[in-house]
Inverse folding.
């Protein structure tokens, strides 16, 4: 049983490889035929161009001769011109027309040489070889890509937890950066409010200083009644004293105001510097956070693209797996069918052996009836096995039964023949791989032969043949 199964599997694999090779050869033949057709079309075009060039040569020769005859003066006009189809000698043609004809002849020879050039066939053969090499290289690349795809799928399945951890870590970092950014914004707003308050205070102090500057000269100067009385008493002494007191008071007030202004300016400058120093580190983390967030977004987009590509690869692989699964199911069904046929053939062989062991019984009619019943059961049960008969198909079952000899003591036994495998589309016949005993045609005295080792036995050595079959097949 195991040997028969192995043979069937080996034959099936061999036929499958042969089918693949025939398909590749048919494709190459189709491509070669298409290329040959293209080359034939090119040859026809070249031949047409050659014919057109020949016509042009003839026309140019005729026109040149006509022009040469027409230049002979007034007398040439009266002469009768030759018809255009008339051939002219090269001696009567002018030099320019001769050169033109020679050039056209050379081009014609070149075109003919190109048409009948054997290098085209060599180029086609080289192209076919290059296509075969390219096909093998593409198959190798396909295998490499399949291996890479499998490795990617395994890495994806292994690194799913790592990706989830990385995404969680990145999201936590983003939240932390956003909280720090909000804290820095609030701190910056408080500093801006303090700066605004200081600016308001500065403007208030400046306004107060101006008001004080306006009020100080009026307070230091005397009222008008007292000034008039003093002027009446001593006009000469009061005028110099008032003139000397006013500049001193104004100078002191101006100096005080200038000092206050300088102090306020210094304070404002210090506050502005502090604000700038605080704004600098607050703005830098903002830029860093923006750049980090953009980088993280790009990384997430790249990861999404990779995931989409891997999903597409997985879909393609799933489709291929479905196709392979369908092929595997078909092969399994075919294998089961072959095993059933093999078991049916074994049952049929056992029945034949049992019938042959009881053939020594003189009741030949009962033997013939049992043989017919076994054959009918085998025909009804086995559908994938075919018998290749040597006689015509029109003979009936009665003609195929063994006839008695003249003595009436012995009957003719069927001959075992090893039939060749028959291939129809995708089915395989098991006539060459199974134990099939086929009846021989009536009227022919032929020897018996083992279906496995092709050992010959005499017509009367049926018992030896049965023993040999038991030993040879191992049943």
């Amino acid at each position: 049983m195991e040997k028969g199964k192995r043979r069937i599997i080996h034959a099936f694999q061999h036929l499958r490889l042969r089918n693949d090779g025939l398909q590749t050869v048919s494709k190459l033949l189709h491509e070669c035929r298409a290329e040959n057709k293209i080359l034939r079309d090119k040859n026809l075009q070249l031949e047409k161009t050659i014919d057109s060039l020949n016509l042009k040569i003839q026309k140019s020769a005729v026109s040149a001769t006509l022009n040469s005859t027409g230049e002979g003066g007034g007398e040439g006009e009266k002469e009768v011109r030759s018809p255009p189809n008339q051939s002219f000698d090269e001696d009567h043609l002018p030099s320019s027309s001769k050169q033109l004809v020679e050039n056209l002849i050379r081009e014609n020879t070149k075109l003919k040489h190109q048409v009948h050039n054997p290098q085209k066939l060599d180029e086609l053969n080289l192209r076919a070889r290059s296509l075969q090499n390219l096909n093998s290289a593409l198959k190798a690349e396909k295998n490499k890509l399949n291996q890479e795809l499998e490795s990617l799928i395994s890495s994806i399945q292994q690194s799913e937890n790592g990706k989830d951890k990385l995404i969680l870590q990145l999201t936590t970092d983003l939240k932390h950066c956003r909280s720090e950014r909000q804290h820095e914004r609030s701190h910056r707003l408080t500093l801006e409010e303090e700066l605004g308050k200081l600016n308001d205070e500065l403007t208030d102090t400046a306004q107060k200083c101006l008001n004080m500057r306006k009020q100080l000269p009026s307070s230091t100067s005397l009222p008008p009644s007292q000034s008039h009385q003093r002027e009446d008493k001593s006009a000469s002494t009061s005028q110099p004293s008032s003139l000397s007191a006013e500049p001193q008071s104004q100078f002191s007030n101006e100096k005080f105001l200038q000092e206050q202004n300088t102090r306020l300016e210094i304070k404002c400058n210090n506050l502005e510097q502090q604000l700038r120093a605080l704004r600098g580190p607050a703005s830098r983390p903002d830029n860093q956070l923006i750049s980090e967030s953009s980088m993280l977004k790009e990384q997430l987009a790249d990861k999404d693209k990779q995931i989409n590509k891997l999903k597409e690869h997985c879909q393609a692989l799933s489709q291929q797996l479905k196709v392979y699964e369908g092929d595997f199911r078909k092969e399994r069904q075919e294998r089961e069918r072959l095993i059933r046929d093999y078991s049916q053939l074994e049952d049929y062989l056992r029945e034949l052996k049992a019938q042959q062991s009881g053939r020594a019984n003189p009741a030949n009619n009962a033997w013939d009836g049992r043989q017919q019943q076994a054959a009918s059961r085998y025909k009804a049960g086995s559908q994938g096995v075919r018998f290749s008969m040597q006689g015509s198909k029109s003979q009936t079952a009665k003609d195929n039964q063994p006839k008695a000899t003249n003595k009436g003591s012995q009957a003719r036994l069927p001959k075992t023949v090893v039939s060749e495998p028959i291939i129809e589309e995708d089915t395989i016949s098991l006539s060459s791989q199974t134990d099939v005993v086929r009846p021989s045609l009536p009227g022919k005295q032929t020897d018996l032969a083992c279906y496995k080792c092709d050992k010959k036995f005499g017509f009367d050595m049926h018992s030896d043949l049965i023993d040999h079959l038991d030993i040879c097949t191992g049943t």
Notes: The chain is about 75% helix and 0% strand. The first helix runs from residue 2 to 70. Confidence is low (pLDDT under 50) at residues 71-95, 218-231, 233-245, 382-445. Strands lie at 423-424, 427-428, 448-449, 456-457.
